[in-house]
């Protein structure tokens, strides 16, 4: 039966978090029930203050085989990381 | 005990706490029977949550009962060591789970009453009662939101789901009247401002039921007949089986802890 229901990706904004974070997925017949199900499945221990649901099918993902061309070029560009600055003592932890 | 608590007789207040706590205990146990058996995983977890909410409320009501009685009984001893005739729950909540539709219909009919009852109890003259009602009310508001939504979806669903929901409503309807019947205990509670007159909850309950059943395309039976007895300890045969399951461990191994 559940195989007839679409899959939804669940995002929850935690008590102190600023952003919604992906927490997992579940099945539901529509968005409204996906939110209810998410409430029951993922917020049982007071994890969240807000829930987003997105149909898994609506997510466009990068292809794993593109990993090289997409991400590797940045490996050799150390100058993109702000590691060449001396941080004055008085600034403290950044 | 303050002056307010003393103005109503202790036996009636104890009885009232048992009625509230036994409703949530027995329904909570019934709903927990679905754990691991629900049609889909998401429903399984949702039902288990509802059952846990109800068991949590039981701890508060029966805890209060034990405190009022003042004989050293706790929520645990009241739940695990009373026989069927000492239970005060409505017959509705001991009805068998049946199919998923029957379980949801029973939940909805009870939730609609439960929420109104708790809202009224939030204004109780007894602050302990008001406090429990306020805490339980937030959980029950969600129970009602969920059960009414599912009753509408299944009632107004396929031919098969519609047929099952109508059968569930017809089957359970004669067990709803008991929620609104008053006896001497209810009269004493209303008199002392501790709880509402049960009959006063009926018009709004009927309006909620009417609205949801309308959307669910289900027909509310026009029979006014009602089974009764649970509130004074006269139960159907089902309660004995529930208690056998619920109480076995404490009966077989008295005082066992884990």
From TrEMBL, chain A:
It comes from the Bacteria. This is Ring-1,2-phenylacetyl-CoA epoxidase subunit PaaB. Pfam families: PaaB. InterPro entries: PaaB, PaaB_sf.
TrEMBL record, chain B:
Gene3D superfamilies: 1.20.1260.10. GO terms for biological process: phenylacetate catabolic process. This is Ring-1,2-phenylacetyl-CoA epoxidase subunit PaaC. Signal peptide: none annotated. One of its GO terms (cellular component) is cytosol. InterPro entries: Aromatic_CoA_ox/epox (IPR052703), Ferritin-like (IPR012347), Ferritin-like_SF (IPR009078), PaaA_PaaC (IPR007814), PaaC (IPR011882).
